[in-house]
Amino acid sequence: MGMVLEIVVPPERTGERIDVFLTGAEGIATRSIAQKLLAGGYVFCSALGEKVAKPLCCHKPLQKNYKVIAGDVIVCDLPQPQPCETIAEDIPLDIMYEDDHLLVVNKPRGLVVHPAAGNWQGTLVNALLHHCNGRLSGIGGVLRPGIVHRLDKDTSGAMVVAKDDVTHQGLAAQLADSSMVRVYNAVCFGVLQQDNMKIDAAIGRHPVDRKKMMVCLREDSTKRIRHAVTHIKVLERFHKYTLISAQLETGRTHQIRVHMAHVNHPVLGDEVYTNRSQPLFLKGQQGQILHATQLAFMHPVTRQEMTFTAPWPEYFRQVVDKIMKIGI
Predict the structure, then answer these.
(1) Which of 164, 230, 297, 326 has the fewest Cβ atoms within 10 Å of its own Cβ atom?
(2) Lowest-confidence segment of 26-35, 117-126, 201-210 by average pLDDT
(3) 3-class state of residue 215 by DSSP
(4) For 181-326, which CATH class?
(5) Residue 55, pLDDT score
C-alpha cells in the first residue's frame, strides 16, 4: 500500500496547474513524476476551495490542466515505490586519492552523481559501486551509497566518497560544522568591484519552479529556508567577465549559482539563474562554468589533514583562454 498525501492549496498558489503545484511535494520530486501520477489517476480533490463554477472533482481523478484554487484539498494516492537496485557499471573514474576508508574523485562535467528519475544508470554511484566492489557507506541509502556531498551534473571537480559508515559520519560532521574546506572557481558575468565579498543570504526552494532555488528574506523553523554563506575572492578581472574563487561556508543546493545571480553577477553558462544572453564563444558548451577546485578535510580515521586540488578541466580552461584572447 502506498502513501496518501494531502495538501491544502494556499492563497498564493491559486491559478497554478495541478502538475506545477505538485512538483516538489513529498514523494513528487519532479514535474514529470507529477504528470505520471495524474495520468495514472492517482490525484484527486477531496474538498473544493472558493465557491466558483468548477467541476466537482472528488469522484474522478484530476487532469493535468486543472488549476488549483485556495482551499482545495489535493489528495495524492502515491503508489508503493518499486525496489530499485543500483547497478554497478564499469565507468572510468579520475581518482585523486584512495585508501580503505574513503576516496577522492575528480568528477567530470556532465556526470550525474546519483541515480534518480531519468538517470537510473551511468551515474557516479554506478561507477563507484563497480570500482569499490559494492563496498560503500550505507548511510546515503540504496541510491546514494557513500555520497557525503554532491556536485551538480554540469559542475566538475573534487568530491570525497565514504567507504564505511564511521568515515561517512566523520565527514558529514565536518560538513555540518563548516570545517571541511570547499573552494570553487567560476567565471561570472560582469566585473566585480570588490576584491573580496561575503554573500550572506538564506536560500529556499522556488515556490513555482520546484527545480530552482532562490534567495529568501530570512530562514524559517522548518529548515525549508536555510542560512547560506559564500565567500568570494576575485582572481582576475576581464572587460566583461570576472574569474572568481568561491569558498562555501554552508552547502545549500545550487548555492554559488544562486548567490552570484543574487548579486547580479551570475555564473557564465548558467541559463537557470539568469536570462542574460550567453556569449557566442560558449556555443557547444552545456551548463555553468563552475569547477570544484579545492577540497580539504581531516581524515576521520587517521586524523590526517588532507588537501586536494583538482586542476581546471579542458572546458574551463578553453573558456578562460577565449576570454583572454578575444579581450572581452
Answers:
(1) 326
(2) 26-35
(3) strand
(4) alpha beta
(5) 43
Output the CATH code of domain 95-176.
Answer: 3.30.2350.10
pLDDT at 27: 67
d(CA 242, CA 244) in angstroms, rounded, equals: 6
Q: pLDDT for 60-89, tens place per residue?
A: 789 888 999 998 889 887 776 544 578 899
Query: Identity (one letter) of the amino acid at 153?
Result: K
Q: Cell triple for residue 224?
A: 525549508
**Distance of alpha carbon 57 from alpha carbon 73, whole angstroms:** 11
- Classify residue 172 by its DSSP letter: H
Identify residue 2 by its one-letter amino acid code: G
Burial class (CB in 10 A: 0-12, 13-18, 19+), 1: exposed
Catalytic residues: 152
Provide the CB-side half-sphere exposure for 286 (13 A, CA). 7
Domain residue spans of the chain: 4-77, 95-176, 181-326
